[in-house]
């Protein structure tokens, strides 16, 4: 079921067309990657979802209803540009912002105690935001974003400022939120995080949606029929055994084992390819090279120039 839908969204700023009939469908209980180069229109779409601005054309639906003011309290937004008050104490600020989201003081204190203990930051309660590093501030803002248990979470570059250990911690928390039923829109330039976390993606460039769908299906669509094989045998024989069916390149050799990349040139099956290779030696390993989301991002954006 689609929990959030944006249909044919158009947004203009003076003479600039920021969004040109952009559409996304976010399934309930999934993590949706909103991707694109700088200036693509991602931030404009996020601002529309948060009702900071309105579309000039198109429709936005939240949980089956047209997006309206009351839905704001069901959305948690972690912006790329952090918005904490630097001179204010962390505990006091977190409590204040929680109450703005409709949580009672008593419940807010209980929930904050849980999260501060979980992140082992109890000692930060009376510190001012300006005393914390960027990554430490990010932890606090993450807590404030999720505290009111919103149905839709929007994370814009959530790992910015984190070392690898804390980035891994935050990824685990995002996956836990998904398990608990949250629907998440995740915007980032880090394609490895997209592969780890996202179920579906939309790639926006120059204000238009140029690619969208299930990550696994997208990767299948862009596969290049290239396989990496390690074997012990006759490399020259492998190169010449069936040049009309496959080509061999990018070779290396280590401890009597040859590693090559083989590209299938026609409808040859993998079983037929393996049969040809076995005629030339003993196979140690055989793997299909599937393009990464980073490779696909670069290719699709490059083709859209």
Describe this structure in words.
34% of the residues lie in helices and 32% in strands. With 305 residues, the chain is an alpha/beta fold. The protein has 2 domains: 159 residues, 3-Layer(aba) Sandwich (Rossmann fold); 66 residues, 2-Layer Sandwich (Alpha-Beta Plaits), CATH 3.30.70. The strands form 3 sheets. A 6-stranded mixed β-sheet has the order 6-7-8-3-9-10. The protein has a 4-stranded antiparallel β-sheet with strand order 2-1-4-5, covered by helices on one side. A 4-stranded antiparallel β-sheet has the order 12-13-11-14, covered by helices on one side. A hairpin with a 2-residue loop joins strand 9 and strand 10. Helix 2 packs across helix 3. The mean pLDDT is 93.
Provide the descriptors you would attach to this structure in a database record.
four-stranded antiparallel beta sheet, alpha/beta, 2 domains, Alpha-Beta Plaits
In short:
With 305 residues, the protein is α/β, with parallel strands linked by helices. It has helices spanning 42-49, 90-100, 105-118, 134-146, 164-179, 191-197, 215-221, 235-241, 270-278, 293-303; strands spanning 2-13, 16-27, 31-35, 57-62, 65-66, 75-78, 152-156, 183-187, 200-205, 208-214, 226-233, 246-254, 257-264, 281-288. Helices cover 34% and strands 32% of the residues.
């Amino acid at each position: 079921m689609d929990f959030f839908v944006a249909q044919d969204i158009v947004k203009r700023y003076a003479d600039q067309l920021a969004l040109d009939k952009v559409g996304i469908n976010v399934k309930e209980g999934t993590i949706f990657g909103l991707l694109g180069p700088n200036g693509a229109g991602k931030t404009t779409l996020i601002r529309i979802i948060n009702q900071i601005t309105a579309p000039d054309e198109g429709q936005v639906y939240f949980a089956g209803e047209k997006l309206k003011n009351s839905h704001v309290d069901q959305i948690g937004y972690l912006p790329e540009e952090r918005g904490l008050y630097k001179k204010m104490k962390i505990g006091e600020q977190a409590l204040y912002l929680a109450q703005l989201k409709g949580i009672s003081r008593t419940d807010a204190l209980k929930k904050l105690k849980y999260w501060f203990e979980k992140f082992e930051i109890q000692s930060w309660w009376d510190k001012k935001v300006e005393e914390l590093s960027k990554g430490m501030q990010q932890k606090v803002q993450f807590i404030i974003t999720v505290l009111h248990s919103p149905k839709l979470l929007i994370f814009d570059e959530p790992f910015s400022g984190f070392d690898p250990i804390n980035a891994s911690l935050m990824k685990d928390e995002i996956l836990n939120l998904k398990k608990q039923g949250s629907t998440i829109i995740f915007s980032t330039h880090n394609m490895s995080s997209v592969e780890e976390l996202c179920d579906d993606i939309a790639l926006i460039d120059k204000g238009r949606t140029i690619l969208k769908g299930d990550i696994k299906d997208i990767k299948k669509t862009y596969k290049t029929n290239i396989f990496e094989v390690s074997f012990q045998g006759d490399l020259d024989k492998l190169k010449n055994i069936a040049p009309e069916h496959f080509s061999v390149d990018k070779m290396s050799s280590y401890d009597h084992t040859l590693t090559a990349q083989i590209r299938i040139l026609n409808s040859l099956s993998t079983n037929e390819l393996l049969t040809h290779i076995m005629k030339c030696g003993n196979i140690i390993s055989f793997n299909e090279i599937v393009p990464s989301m980073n490779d696909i991002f670069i290719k699709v954006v490059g083709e859209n120039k």
